[in-house]
Amino acid sequence: MTRFDADSEAERVALVADAVAAHRERESAFCTLEADDDPSDDPEFLPPWVQYADGTLNLDCTDEELDVLSDVLARFGAFTVTARDTEEDAPGTNVRIEARADDDRVGQFVEAVFREVYDLPEDFQLWAVEV
User: Fold this and answer.
1) Separation between Cα atoms, residue 119 and residue 131, nearest integer Å
2) Residue-wise pLDDT tens for the chain (131 aa)?
3) Is 117 helix (H, G, I), strand (E, B) or coil?
4) Would 44 be classed as within a structural domain?
5) Which of 73, 97, 123, 125 could form a disulfide linkage to 57, CB 3.0–4.6 angstroms apart?
6) CA 68, 71, 75, 76 torsion-angle sign
7) What is the CATH number of the domain that holds 117?
């Protein structure tokens, strides 16, 4: 893998597909994709992220984001929620999603998560922070 960030839809989808493929080839524990979009410059800001490992996506969502995630999942039939965990002190829910799809379709799904669930702008920058 030679690039680790992208800021257009087509490039981000390709970046995710490449990161998933690199993760599989390297037999790493997981790969992490993270958005770089903090309009407030708040030091407490935690960027949205998605992890992928062994055909499973892992992400955190607020209650509002969970509603949007359900709509996204309805459009991507090969993706199924396998677990939802909410801790008492946590501000949201950790969701694990089985992805029975090729790397490009995983890229499309992850793009939809960042754009729709996390409500990021069209030109947000995505980073493959761990492969």
Assistant:
1) 24
2) 567 999 999 999 999 999 999 999 999 999 999 998 665 677 767 789 999 999 999 999 999 999 999 999 999 999 999 999 998 887 789 999 999 999 999 999 999 999 999 999 999 999 999 88
3) helix
4) no
5) 97
6) positive
7) 3.30.70
Helix, strand, coil percentages in the chain from 3-state DSSP, rounded to 5: 35, 30, 35
Total-model pTM: 0.91
> 43 lies in a domain?
no
The amino acid at residue 129 is V
Residue 115 per-residue DSSP state: I
Element at 63 (helix H, strand E): helix 63-75
What is the total count of domains within the chain? 1
In a domain, 26, yes or no: yes
CA distance 83 to 61: 13
Residue 116 belongs to domain spanning: 5-37+49-130
